[in-house]
Amino acid sequence: MQNLIKQIEQWAEDRNIVAGSTPRKQAEKTMEECFELLDAVTKNDRPEVVDAIGDIVVTLVIQARMQGLDFTECVESAYNVIKERKGKLIDGKFVKE
């Protein structure tokens, strides 16, 4: 995974996304990809779900790079917050206590 993250970062650097864009614009791109995921899930279109999940991860890797953050550390930080979280499913969504 680390190698793939580095490849995504290099891809973004090569296309001037990191230096030539803004974190706000990248966040907008992430939201666009999230809506594509929602559409694919609604249509039960598995290939598009796979594509959308991948695209979301790519936009988040680029966002982390733009913010001077390590993507893996961000994910680890989130996991450390949720790993002991308690809650329950309500209408198919996990709701924390």
CATH class: Mainly Alpha
Number of strands: 2
* Largest β-sheet summary: 2 strands, antiparallel
Strand residues, percent? 5-15%
Label the overall shape.
globular
What oligomerization state is this entry in? single chain
Specify the number of helices: 5
Q: What would you call the structural class?
A: mainly alpha
What value does the average pLDDT take? Answer: 97
Q: How large, in whole angstroms, is the Cα Rg?
A: 15 Å
CATH topology: Helix Hairpins
Explain what the structure shows.
The chain is mainly α and 97 residues long. The chain has a single domain (2-96), classed as Helix Hairpins, CATH 1.10.287. The chain is 72% helix and 8% strand. It contains five helices and two strands. Strand 1 and strand 2 (93-96) form a beta hairpin. Helix 1 (2-14) crosses helix 4 (46-66) and helix 3 packs antiparallel against helix 4. The longest helix is centred in the middle third of the chain and has 21 residues, at 46-66. The termini are far apart.
List keywords for this structure.
97 residues, mainly alpha, Helix Hairpins, two-stranded antiparallel sheet, 2 strands, 72% helix, 8% strand
Note the topology.
Layout lengths: L1 H13 L2 H4 L2 H20 L3 H21 L4 H12 L4 E4 L2 E4 L1
Antiparallel strand pairs: 1-2
Short summary:
The chain has 97 residues and is mainly alpha-helical. It has a single domain (2-96), classed as Helix Hairpins (Orthogonal Bundle), CATH 1.10.287. It has helices at residues 2-14, 17-20, 23-42, 46-66, 71-82, and strands spanning 87-90, 93-96.
